[in-house]
Amino acid sequence: MAAELVRGQNHPLTQTRLEIRVSAGRPVVAGATLADDRGTVHGTGRVAHPGAPALPGLEVPRQAAADHRLAVDLDAMPADVHRVTVLLALPVTAGGPTRFGAVAAPFVAVTGLDGVEEASYTITDLDTESAVTALELYRRQGAWKVRAIGQGYADGLAALFADQGVPDAHALAGTIHDAVAQGLARAVTPPPRPADEAQVRAAATAGHASGALPPAAPAGRGSGSDGPIDYTHPGRQAPPPPPAAHPAEPGRPAVPVAGDATGWSMEERLYNQVWGMFEDLARTTAAYRSAVDFADSRQEQELDRVLSDPRGRIGGQADAAREAAGARHGALVDRAREALDRDMAQLVAESEVVEPALPAAYADWDNPCWHAYRSPMELPMAVRVGDLRLPESESAGLRVPMLVRLPLERGLWIDSGASAADALTDADELRARAAHTALVHAARLLAIYPAGEFSVHVIDPAGTATGALAPLVDAGVLAGPVARGAAGVAETLTRLTERVDLVQMAVRSGAVDALPADLDVAEQLLIVHDFPHGFDDRAVTRLRYLADEGPQVGVHLMLVADRADAAEYGPLLDPLWRALLRLTPIPDDHLADPWVGHAWTYGPPTVPQGSAVLRQVLAEVSRARRERGL
User: Fold this and answer.
1) Edge-to-edge strands of the sheet including 555-561?
2) Which strand (E) or helix (H) includes residue 49?
3) Residues 6 or more apart from 527 whose CB is under 8 A from it?
4) Which range is least confidently modeled, 156-160, 411-415, 419-423, 540-544?
5) Cβ contact 147:9 at 8 Å
6) Contact predicate 463/488, CB 8 Å
7) HEC states along 213-263?
8) Which residue stretches of 510-573 are H helix?
9) What global pTM score does this model have?
């Protein structure tokens, strides 16, 4: 039976190959230190963290996430290591929590590779602390035990490391936070998770009263279990109820239906359902990979035992043992694959009913809804920026729409660099695809906003995107002429930075009504093509300012750039790249989910070959703008 520990309690471990599972409810950093028998950590090389995740006998996650799995092999630990201390910390992010007292109590479990718990510990009574030593595995008289610690540090990782004798503790803490920031830059932002149902209702009531859409309710599908996915979704039947699923045959899962999620509108239900599919695919894949890892580890252990006995290395006995180990390994992998295929089939069935039901903001460009497109009256909750898939879902043809909340909280970076994919070596072709991808994203954003509530500006200093962006110019949907040359760059950036300053001052002083009558109050999108061509130091500074401050007052950035072209700026532009959501013009596995941190292959949005749907949609946007006198 698993032991539920309290602070200071210990428990013997029966296995040496372990997983330490962390569940925190929101992204946290997980790491571990290796110490001697006095608890001293001899150097930064004995600290496993997102920037250096692997040490002998230990591997930790590479990014902040709500759920973690740390792999530990106590037999592979160096002889002078007597303590393995697991640490958690809150990532340093703008607007994120700064103390554990403001988030749910983290839960930590020590399990075998088969997932069976040996001990668990819920870290309670934290307040101002931003870092905590969760538990430690320690060696005593040749045997290993686990002890619940729960020691928090208000001064963060630097104080935690200093307490363990780590040299250069402050520098190490900074290195970890930099690595985490880079990891978060590639993570898909999950939908907001209200604290409780009362908060959902209060926020929704306030939203309806102000004419705004309510925030998303939690998807409610990911339970953290590695078992089969239950598509009856009993936890999501709270009012307003989702539509009833078709009755299932005995012993079979319910037939999925579109909108099978909580929400105050069909759009919100579909949004939550898509995010639920995303989470389900992440977790069922994690369960499959964990099961395969267990099977591999078990086979390795069995073969090690055979080879450790000189009498069993030769002859029929050894061959029989190897054959039996291989058969057991195959059976375990087959069972894991059977469970994965079952869950994958259910997700495919759900996708087949959800995709056709998606509204234009969430739909792919081959969806028939675009042929009946009319300019909307209300802003949608989110926008589709592409698709996500995993290697395990490739054979099933399963892809999940990548939905990003509106208004955009981060700018977009369309990476035109050759590193985006090895298969495409023609740099000119890659840049052309990046410019076309920017067009597709801009056209969708113009289409899903009500007429007059979204303005697009373009900076193309050398005119290299003239052909790609021609549909925007031809339709007359840009806020003004495309800016050319250094003078055009300076004028456009000056105008938009002044707008940001003006709106910020009005908001801070409570004088929004005093804004000039001719000020364009629509959301603004600035497309910058071929950055940093045509930019001087002053223009670069203004661009960074727009990326940091613009989204709060409705000014958004879409950067089409190859990072290598800006190498002369060095680390000066690192905050800019991290502030933007990197998207690629061709499939690339650079994004991560917020639950288990899989590397997902991102697929950019594409318009069907030979289709005129994009120009037809832009023509409708132009017509709606003219009707409003724009």
Assistant:
1) 454-459, 523-531, 555-561, 412-415, 581-583
2) none
3) 438, 442, 456, 457, 458, 459, 469, 558, 560
4) 419-423
5) yes
6) no
7) CCCCCCCCCCCCCCCCCCCCCHHHCCCCCCCCCECCCCCCCCECCCCCCCC
8) 537-549
9) 0.76
Give the rounded distance of the alpha carbon of 59 from its chain centre: 21
Encoded amino acid at 52, one letter: A
Contact 366, 612 (CB under 8 A): no
Structure tokens belonging to residue 367: 């969806």
Tokens of 264: 């105050």
Structure-model confidence comparison of residues 212 and 317, the more confident one: 317
Alpha-carbon separation of residue 499 from 84, 442, 504, 506 (angstroms): 53, 21, 8, 11
| Lowest mean pLDDT segment, chosen from 197-201, 261-265, 338-342 | 197-201
**Parallel/antiparallel/unpaired status of strands 555-561 and 412-415:** parallel
Tokens representing 195 are: 């604290």
Contact, 406 vs 383, CB < 8 A? Answer: yes
Q: Which two tokens stand for residue 403?
A: 């939905």
The amino acid at residue 507 is V
Distances (CA, A) of 628 to 443, 452, 497, 554, 622: 19, 7, 27, 21, 10
558, pLDDT greater than 80: yes
Distance CA 363, CA 267 (A): 12
